[in-house]
Amino acid sequence: IESPIHTNGLTVAPTWGSCLGVFICLDCSGIHRNISDVSKVKSLSLSHWDEHEIQFMAENGNEKMKSKYEANVPVYYYKPTHKDCRVLKEQWIRAKYERKEFSQPGNPFAYEEGVKDGLLMKRGRDNGQFLSRRFVLLEREGTLKYFTKYDAKEPKAVLKVDTINATFQPEKMGNPNGLQITYLKDYSTRNIFVYHDSGKEIVDWYNAIRAVQLHYLKVAFPGATDAELVPKLTRNFLKEGYMEKTGPKQTEGFKKRWFTLDQRRLMYFKDPLDAFAKGEVFFGNKEHGYSVSAGLPSSTYCNGAWTYGITIVTPDRSFLFTCETEEEQQEWIQQFSEVIDATMSPRITRVRANSRHDGIFKISVSMGFCFV
After folding, report:
1. What pLDDT, on the 0 to 100 scale, is given for residue 3?
2. 3-state secondary structure of 43
3. Is the separation of the CB atoms in 339 and 348 below 8 Å?
4. What's the rounded mean pLDDT across residues 229-258?
5. Rounded to an integer, what distance in angstroms lies between the CA atom of residue 121 and that of residue 123?
6. How many other CB atoms are there within 10 angstroms of residue 75's CB atom?
7. How far apart are CA 1 and CA 14, in angstroms?
8. Residue 96: DSSP 8-state
9. Of the candidates 167, 174, 222, which has an alpha carbon nearest to the alpha carbon of residue 368?
């Protein structure tokens, strides 16, 4: 994130410089100010630069400093982009320059010890309160467990790493260190929401999960390269937000719901922080009868306030949604189209519908390890 930033095919040049010898963007400059004992920043256009400072920057620069401070970054370690949340960017910068975690070969990493045991604040499924819970990540078992009491003998839940996804959700959770962990439970998607007051600790948990996932993948797919396996680790959702939906008969009233598009699964929730999805839609390929278009059928009874419609056609039925704005409508259509246009792996055929709920299929699918 400290090189020229690429946005929609355009390159935005960094506007700040650090005494570490790197050129950075405005956002990163704010983080560098928080480690003022390590990094001093100046504006490239507004600050005065002494001759020796200019010479130092000319002799170093982003690529040279990258070879120094990122010399030994583990392949599973998540390198944030300008689109990621602040806690990921801040801990990445602190890990490089303040703690110098990646500068020396052979440095032990806290997130690859094979076991991680600690307390996280977890949101209660029913009451919405955050309470301290013990979490244990075990590489040898390929599991993440949590306990309602620190000294409890039996875990409240056991999550298999091959069904886990983890993604930071500071805005949705209202906490800068908020992490959403998604996994499969009884063929349904289950969400748990956790945070830690320490940004370092929550990012360490995140990368520890990725380290265990990579270990699992290397065992499951011994012939695969790191370049093939790393994209199968944790991922951000393609899109989230509110839409209105109607039922399978398409004569019911439209109701406002929170939607999450995760790879080929569209899930909807009554509340963004619900533990379970009320329903899920599987998106196949356009060659198998899936399509998306703007608007609603002329016969649709639309009682909602939102008028920007979307029609999704699947081999089983059509799904009707409405968005609040045309911009939201077009963003959803673009994401749906990209999913439907993408080639499906033969392994996706392992996905199967287990039950219907409100006219929408509940889907059983490996969360992170569909090796395509």
Report:
1. 54
2. strand
3. no
4. 90
5. 7
6. 13
7. 10
8. I
9. 167
Structure tokens given for 311: 């029609």
Going by C-alpha positions, the residue among 271, 274, 267 that lies closest to residue 191 is 274
Residue pair 191/181 in contact (Cβ under 8 Å)? The answer is: yes
39, pLDDT greater than 70: yes
Per-residue pLDDT of 259-277, as tens digits, reads 999 999 999 999 999 999 9
Mean pLDDT (the chain) is 88
Those residues whose C-beta lies under 8 Å from the C-beta of residue 219, and which sit 6 or more positions away, are none
Query: In one letter, which amino acid is 352?
Result: R
C-beta of residue 328 within 8 angstroms of C-beta of residue 241: yes
pLDDT tens digits, 288-346:
999 999 999 888 877 768 989 999 999 989 999 999 999 999 999 999 999 999 988 65
The DSSP-derived string for 125-137 is TTT--EEEEEEEE
Per-residue pLDDT of 340-351, as tens digits, reads 999 886 554 444
User: For residue 243, which amino acid is it?
Assistant: M
If you count DSSP H runs as helices and E runs as strands, how many of each does the chain have, helices first?
8, 21
Report d(CA 357, CA 340) in Å as an integer.
23
Q: Quick count: other Cβ atoms within 10 Å of Cβ 227?
A: 8
Angstrom distance (rounded) from CA 123 to CA 195: 9
Q: Amino acid identity of 119?
A: L
